[in-house]
Amino acid sequence: MIKYAVTFPGQGSQSIGMMDNIAHAPIIKKTFIEASDILGKDFWSMVTTENEIINQTINTQPLMLTAGVATWRYLQENNLDSPSFLAGHSLGEFTALVAAESLSFESALNIVTKRAELMQNAVPKNEGAMAAIIGLDDEKVVDICSLKKENGILEAVNFNSPGQVVIAGSKVILEESLQSFKDEGAKRAILLPVSVPSHCKLMEPASILFNDYLKGINFNPPEFPIIQNFETIHYNNIDKIKLALVSQLFNPVRWTKTIDFISSKGVGIFIEAGPGKVLTGLNKRINKEASHFSVTNEEAITEILSQLKG
Prior knowledge:
Blueprint: E1 3-8, H1 26-39, H2 43-48, H3 57-77, E2 85-88, H4 92-99, H5 105-122, E3 128-134, H6 138-147, E4 154-161, E5 164-170, H7 171-183, E6 188-191, H8 204-214, H9 238-250, H10 255-264, E7 267-272, H11 278-286, E8 291-294, H12 298-309
């Protein structure tokens, strides 16, 4: 049988109506109701009613976790619950931990809510920013960031796919730097509509508090290998898993290396479990030989099962 991996998206994939095409499956709404009962927020209303609150970090993180877990449970109901590997982009790593039964859904909801609070409070409003650099070699992006470091924090933080890198840091320095990337050949250098400069050194204060918080949370060894964002390796040791989640806050997401590693293990199918197709698009650019699916409708399940049967 062909090996398959399941990947879980993070912030940026949320949208109104994002679960509509699989909402017919009772497990989807049931999972949203479960999350609402745990956190006291109506998450189903958030994704079915026109609003802006789904883009607030404090809502987005538990909302995306819920959407990912709901989609994973939908996969389980369709006998797609034996992946060779799991991986999650940033926040999605927590969804992967729930899928691997390392964390309970309730624990994960509480953790990502705390994580969102700490991240939001780590940097004063309007002092941090992120931008996507398109069409420039990874090394060149890193070099330009290094040249600016005397002026403040500016780092390459998401290596999403070849030619697509996200930078983060102090807002003034970042905005002033955008032209430098274009001058060096970037096709685009676009400010992202986020309030938190994730995965850069500005998040170190949050990481210290997050480390203290995680000490009191019970984890289990994961049932499936989860390829961790920063070091792109799998841990069974609970202390190392926790440390990796803390390190992730102020270190880059190496998504290209993550998919390359999984691909090197003979995985031929990548399934994105969550709303949208962001990771599917990235994964296709990283591994052009594999088959890629996003679970955005029932037909995707049928096609995945067909390919697995050969």
